[in-house]
Amino acid sequence: MDTLYYKVANLTFGIELHEGIALDGMLGAYEPFRTAQTDEPLFLLKVVSSEESDARGGKDWKLLLDHDFEGMITEIYTDEADAYHYTLHFSSQPEMWTCVDFTRDLSQMECRIHGNQRFQLFGLNNALMLLFALCSAPHDTLLFHASVTMNGGKGYLFLGKSGTGKSTHSQLWIKYIEGCELLNDDNPAVRLIDGRPWVFGTPWSGKTPCYKNQQVPVGGFVRLWQAPVNEIQRLSILQAYAALLPTISNMRWEKQCADAINATINKVIQVAPVFSLKNRPEEAAARLSFNALKEADGSRQ
After folding, report:
1. Is the pTM of this model over 0.70?
2. Distance CA 32, CA 201 (A)
3. Which terminus of the chain has fewer Cβ atoms in its 10 Å neighbourhood, N or C?
């Protein structure tokens, strides 16, 4: 059994890889975040290979929530012991599945995986993102679905539904605006430290291999919308809350986590500008958002 520790957003978690989990050489995305053993990690996840035919194993669980995203099916269950069970499988490959079993107080957790090496990595990544979002929420931390570009010592987060051009907008900044660099292209973490939001790189960056163990203060947020014109508007506090909430890994089925996330969002939008950008994927849109953000955060040159 191998026990590995990682630090993301200054929060440490560990994973125990048991026999049958063959991920040798496949955890490169996590290497920049490796850290020494800690006595009090945020969480410690036991990862095991299962021979059961399905995630539930015939158990009578109560379904709380299910979701089908392009054939990736996730389900949340609870049981008589008041524990949670998070399952994942693909409709095209139901014989491969992942199940995360954890107590309501998050003191005990196990990830059971049934599938090949590639699916083991996918299942582990998914489990770790879920548990990081859950366990970090009380620490003023939010896991976003966003692309983040750094410029002038600050990080700017581009938000929106899948396919709205988050990665494209980051690349436009990098191409046309001097001094820009990608921090993360899918799941950055934002954490409040002494009342100031910071954005952190994570091991989870979607299809873009960008795994940087770096942090910068948040310069602002931009919610993107595809449109035939380029128009930007700074949002009010209420509008900003509505813009950010759908882009955060929010476990609404777990009240304590949901309450903590809502509290952190309310703190963040008090100190960081949030914009809505209608845009075409072109240089003019990148310069429009850049100028608006730099003026709002007081760092326009």
Report:
1. yes
2. 10
3. C
The pairing of beta strand 44-49 with beta strand 11-17: parallel
CA pair distance 273, 19, nearest whole angstrom: 48
Cβ contact 161:224 at 8 Å: no
Q: What is the total residue count of the chain?
A: 301
The answer to whether 197 touches 191, Cβ cutoff 8 Å, is: yes
Distance between CA atoms of 157 and 149, rounded to whole angstroms?
7
Tell me the per-residue pLDDT of 74-90, one tens digit each, with 9 for 90 and over: 999 999 999 999 999 99
Using only C-alpha atoms, what is the Rg of the chain?
A: 20
**Whether the Cβ atoms of residue 190 and residue 198 lie closer than 8 Å to each other:** yes
Residues contacting residue 104 through CB under 8 Å, at least 6 positions apart: 82, 83, 84, 254
Residue with tokens 């954005």: 199
Question: Which tokens sit at 123?
Answer: 């299942």
* DSSP label at residue 20: T
pLDDT digit string, tens, across residues 144-192? 999 999 999 999 999 998 878 899 999 999 999 999 999 999 999 999 9
